[in-house]
Structures are given as structure tokens and as C-alpha cells.
Amino acid sequence: MQTGGVAGAPALLLLQGQANSHVWWDGLRGDFESDFQTITLDYRGTGSSRGAIASWTTESFAADAADVLESTGASDAFVYGTSMGGRVAQMLAAHHPDRVKALVLACTTPGGPNAFDRSRKVTEELARATAADRLSVLHDLFYTPAWPHAPKDSSLLGDTTMNQQELAAHRKASRRHDAWEVLPSIAVPTLVLHGEDDLMTPVENARLLSDRIPGAQLHVYPGSRHGFFEEFSPQVTAAVIEFLSGSLTD
Predict the structure, then answer these.
(1) What is the largest CA-CA distance in the chain?
(2) How many domains, the chain?
(3) Is there a contact between 220 and 197 (Cβ–Cβ < 8 Å)?
(4) DSSP code, position 25
(5) Enclosing H/E stretch for 126
(6) How far is it, in rounded angstroms, from Cα 223 to Cα 249?
(7) Which domain holds residue 151?
(8) Which of 87, 133, 165, 219 is the most core-located residue (most Cβ within 10 A)?
(9) In Å, what is the CA distance from 72 to each residue of 9, 76, 158, 223?
(10) CATH number at residue 228
(11) Rg for the chain (alpha carbons), in Å?
């Protein structure tokens, strides 16, 4: 667990994508820390959270997140989940509702048979990529050609310390996610964000989420991909802070 920002400020739990540690947030969390106390964790099988590999699920990761919040002394928190972190955030809000004050879901999916899968072309491209090529393939899926940074400079493209068994367990957890039946039970203010040109997680999933979660707001960013929340962070982070700060006064 890692914390930052001003002690005593509203807690903001940041949940990263599949097969990534808290490092995912390194370039972003500072922009939240004038307004919030940020909290991150390493999912099992990532970062400093290692041990026996089990049949992890987004629900089990959500239970871990609830335990982390309890350990910080935060009775509840704002929750911002991106990619698989958005799937974990759905389960946290549905199964631990007392822990979540408001919810932001970015570049994510409800999972299950109702979700829109990525194209076969993208799936095959990822499957065929060698270890040497995978970063480049992911980089193109996360960022537009205008993004000036090299793949090696991104903190979003995977925790390189994970072994093949840990990676497989994460992929399985993400793939088996299905929150369709519990989404209508989410009763906190919810903002759904997505990149319009996201090929990793098609934008139709954002529309499903915003329709399925009562009262959810939807904002789609034109011309952006899976990592839009980093590439266009000045606009996206400002929108997240405005939404969460507004929910404090609702």
C-alpha cells in the first residue's frame, strides 16, 4: 500500500490496469494530491505483493482493496479505476458499497457476454507479439502517434517483474469479469470515461456501463486510445477532480 497527498483530505483510491503495480499511477497521482489523500496498492502477483498464485478474480482484488482502505483508517473513499482497475472498482462499489463515496470508471468494460470484445485482429496481434515486440504493440494501442514518449518510458505497459504464471492469473481474472447483474445496484455518483478510438476496450463498453449504472455520466474523448487518461491527462484529470469534488457537495 502507498499513500500520498495531504493527510486528512478526502481519500482517493486509484486502481490500475491488469498486470500492473501501483507504478501505473506514478506520473498521474501528484495532480490529485492537492485535493485528496491518494491510496494505491499492488495487486496480488505484482510489485511487492507476491506469494502463492491462486484463482484471483476482480471480486477478490476488490476485497483486497476494501482491506487496504480499512488499514489506512479511511472508512470510505472516492475510487478511480482504469482498465482492469475499472472492473475491480465495479466489484468494490457493488460488493462493498459502504467503502465507496463516488466512482470513476475509465477505459473499462462490464465484462461477460454483454460486453464488446476487442477485434480478432487486435487479439491476434497481441498473441503473436514476441517479448521484444510486445511493448511496441501495447504502446500503439495505448497512445496516439502524437504521443512523444518511447514505449520504455511508459509506466502503463506492464509490471516487468511478473512471471508467466502471475501474468496468466491476471489475464484470467480480467477475462472472467462479469458485473452485468450487479451494476444496477451501484448507488453512488459515477462518471464513465473512455477514448473514442480505444481498440483494447471498444468504446461501446462505456455506453453499456453508463446505461447500466443508475445516473452515471458519460464522457468520451475523441481521437484518443486506451491510455487517454495519461496522454490527455490535463483535461481528463481536471474532469475527474471536478466530478469528485462536486460529489462532496451533492
Answers:
(1) 50
(2) 1
(3) no
(4) G
(5) helix 120-128
(6) 33
(7) 2-249
(8) 87
(9) 13, 10, 26, 38
(10) 3.40.50.1820
(11) 17
Identify each DSSP E strand in the chain by its residue range. Answer: 2-5, 11-15, 37-40, 77-82, 100-106, 190-195, 217-221
pLDDT digits (tens, 9 = 90+) for 134-161: 889 999 999 999 999 999 999 999 999 9
Residue 8 burial by Cβ neighbours in a 10 Å radius (0-12, 13-18, 19+):
exposed
- Say how far apart CA 186 and CA 92 lie, in whole Å: 10
Q: How far apart are CA 106 and CA 125, in angstroms?
A: 23
Grid cell 496522454 is found at: 231
Measure CA of the first residue to CA of the last residue in the chain; give whole Å. Answer: 30
Lateral strand order in the sheet of 100-106: 2-5, 37-40, 11-15, 77-82, 100-106, 190-195, 217-221
> Are residues 64 and 41 in contact, defined by beta-carbon separation less than 8 angstroms?
yes
Q: Are strands 217-221 and 11-15 parallel, antiparallel or unpaired?
A: unpaired
CA pair distance 244, 247, nearest whole angstrom: 5
Q: Residues near 171 by Cβ (< 8 Å), separated by ≥ 6? A: 18, 19
For residues 200 and 224, give the distance between their C-alpha atoms in angstroms, rounded to a whole number: 12
Contact 32, 241 (CB under 8 A): yes
How sure is the predictor about 191, in pLDDT bands with cuts at 50, 70 and 90?
Answer: very high
CB contact set of 189 (below 8 Å; sequence gap of 6+): 102, 103, 215, 243, 247, 250
Chain-centroid distance, C-alpha 78 = 13
Q: Of 20, 226, 230, which is closest to residue 109 (Cα–Cα)? A: 226
SS3 178: strand
